[in-house]
Amino acid sequence: MTNEFKRLIHSSLVWQQTGKRTVMATVVHLEGSSYRRPGVRMAISEEGEAIGAISGGCVEKEIIRQAQSVIQTGKSRIMTYDGRFRVGCDGLIYILLEPMFVSEDLRRDFDAVLKERQTFRTESYYYIEPGEFEAIGSRLILGDTSYSLNPAFQPEQLTGQKCFRQSFQPVFQLYIFGAEHDAVQLCKVAHHTGWDVTIVASPDESKSVAFFPGAERLIAPAFDSIDASVLDEQTAVVLMSHSFHKDVQYLIALKDVTPAYIGLLGPVQRRERLLNEFLNYCPDASPEFLDQLHGPAGINIGAESASEVAVSILAEILSVVRNQEPMALREKAGSIHG
Questions:
Q1: What are the tens digits of pLDDT across the range 89-133?
Q2: Phi and psi torsions of 156, nearest 5°
Q3: What are 284's strand-pairing partners?
Q4: 166-186: b (≥16 Cβ within 10 Å) or e
Q5: Which of 195, 223, 248, 249 could, after both became Cys, cross-link 190 (CB 3.0–4.6 A)?
Q6: Domains of the chain: total
Q7: Is 326 part of any domain?
Q8: What is the DSSP string of 24-65?
Q9: Do residues 23 and 131 share a domain?
């Protein structure tokens, strides 16, 4: 969600800089079930360009059409979409469409919050009724500062509207320790998922960040100077250097961190050798650290190629982060999402 919101803000800013007006569409309420839940958004320019998605493709064209009315009038509106008349959906969604302007102050503070990996939140005020309204809109709350996405919507207009509140964690990040071909594939898949990817190469590695499409950065610190403090609870780590001794040194450098996930590439026998060697150097390693190690990394989907292994690892990371047991959706009772 955080990465999607980041894309909407930055895309809207690019449109603004070329003189295009923008509308933000937010699902604020749901009756029944839907492909996606309240809190999903998309941004639409006055030329009909769109970033993000509200559904699997059913409602986007209508949103783009109604967004043009918002651009012309400058007034926010509520539209509804009844998925019960469509195959695959079974709910009524309420969508807030509002003019959006990203001020320089908002951009500066938003980028600072992302860089410092702080949480932020939004509040969207609306009515359970389709139509055009003066007193509806969203606020972006960054620390102690609140920004109205629609400058015409101000706090004094709050007089009992319903409110959809949403909190955003820092952008999820993946640290890949290794610079071989399979690291390239994992980087690509993670980037397309919306994660912030960092490649950690050994000091003797000659590759640049350009070798890893989608990576934000490549670093090559000495083993004893790795900054593990950046590996927070919104971070996954995968050790895949293809060098047993390098992976031992990486594991030693990470012994005091508790990210969301640490994966070890390779078969069970390699994992056992790796842990035995690690414990020779760090006999006092905590049980909590050892328990968070996942090796062999990935879930059993019959993966063979590097791309398939990347999908397997990504699926396991998601299952751990979301606290879900991997299973076929046809075997899951109740809602298949969440």
A1: 567 889 999 999 999 999 999 999 999 999 999 999 999 989 998
A2: -65, -10
A3: none
A4: bebebbbbbbbbbbbebbbbb
A5: 195
A6: 2
A7: no
A8: EEEEEEEEEE-SS-TT-EEEEETTS-EEE-SSSSSSHHHHHH
A9: yes
